[in-house]
Design a protein that fits this description.
- This protein is an alpha+beta fold.
- The chain is built from eight helices and eight strands; from the N terminus they run ββααβαααββαβαββα.
- The strands form two sheets. Strands 1-5-4-6 form a four-stranded antiparallel sheet, with helices on both faces. A four-stranded antiparallel sheet has the order 3-2-7-8.
- The chain is globular.
Amino acid sequence: MWRTEVGVRSTGDGMAADQSPPPGAPAEPQQGESSAGESPDLIGYRGPTACSAAGITYRQLDYWARTGLVEPSIRPAYGSGSQRLYSFRDIVVLKIVKRLLDTGVSLQNIRTAVQHLRSRGRTDLAQMTLMSDGATVYECSSPDEVVDLLQAGQGVFGIAVGVVWKDVEGALAQLHGEHVDTGETIVGDHPGDELARRRNRAG
């Protein structure tokens, strides 16, 4: 467990990003995988798509990028006319930052939390719960740690990162991404398209 006031530390069963999960651990979610099955590492999302999936405004996205709070890990903006390109993990972090801000957590504490989130492996993120009393952010890697915080009066609200992960995955599946290498657009699978196809067949 860690708290932002005293620096980042973990006492859970978390693994570093370059470690393999132990035997019997749940499979890692395939982050941001498109309906065509492209590798998530080869897919990027432009600013407007990131905003839509994370539920933030473009002004927030731009400010957070310029201040270094959440920068695009695939491609930053290089000047007028250039397009930032965000990864799936970036957008998960953006959505978490929005929720922390909405509950009154300070930018200083959020910045520390973001650094910690970026240092963790995909399996860790999917199993992590962030708890906060509105001032301090705590990471819990087990239900027992969540209960301990609540009993101590330190957990007022919680964010299940795995739920955020699935929300972003569902949103991006309906939006456009692009291949990092070629710039080719990846068209999202919008549920309305399938409905239209069915109506056309029925007609």
